[in-house]
Amino acid sequence: MPENERRAEIMDAVERLLGRGGVNAVTMRAVASEAGVSLRLVQYYGKNKDALLTATLDRLADRSIERWRSRSERQGASGSAIDQVKAFLDEALPTDAASRGFHRVGVSLEALAITHPGVAGQAYQVHLRALADHLVRALRSDTHLSAAAARLLALEVMGLAHGLGTLLMADQLTESEAESLTADYLERLRPRLSH
């Protein structure tokens, strides 16, 4: 098996463990067992748990941004700031098995960034900054927002997305209620973006 496939297999195992049991479920031995490979091979691709989590997070961060871009294209977003925010919020809502797993992994990594601000926690913070940067660029491309105002708005949108996603996952909101709240937010946001 080619090296890149083996590495992907190990990162997939880390993601599955994170999705099922959070950060505490990820141990070198658990990853080896989940991937069906030797502990030595897992150690070859990640010298420790932080290295495995960081590599997995880097891969997830790239996929997160790509999923948002793909959704934007599928929805035929015109490139307007409001369309980009809508695509971002739609993508962030955990409404299917894949997006629920993705959200679960994100929450696990968020907990890591808060409780263990080491290498993997810092990697998650880098991911959040990169995600905010992408959203800032989308907002500034179609508005007259200053960089500071666009950054605050990007963080507001990310906070709403995260909160709605968590409430949806915790069965405190239905999918239609979350979509209704998103639609209401977008209507209130529209005038702010047109100035």
TrEMBL record:
All copies of domain HTH tetR-type, residue ranges: 4-64
Alphabetized UniProt keyword annotations: DNA-binding, Repressor, Transcription, Transcription regulation
InterPro entries registered for this protein in UniProt: BetI_C, Homeodomain-like_sf, HTH-type_TetR-like_transc_reg, HTH_TetR, Tet_transcr_reg_TetR-rel_C_sf
SUPFAM superfamilies attached to this UniProt entry: Homeodomain-like (SSF46689), Tetracyclin repressor-like, C-terminal domain (SSF48498)
Record-level Gene Ontology MF annotations: DNA-binding transcription factor activity; transcription cis-regulatory region binding
DNA-binding region location: 27-46
Domain of life of the source: Bacteria
Signal peptide boundaries: none
Pfam families in the cross-refs: TetR_C_6, TetR_N
Keyword Lipid metabolism found: no
Record protein name field: AcrR family transcriptional regulator
Taxonomic source organism: Micromonospora polyrhachis
Lineage start: Bacteria, Bacillati, Actinomycetota, Actinomycetes, Micromonosporales
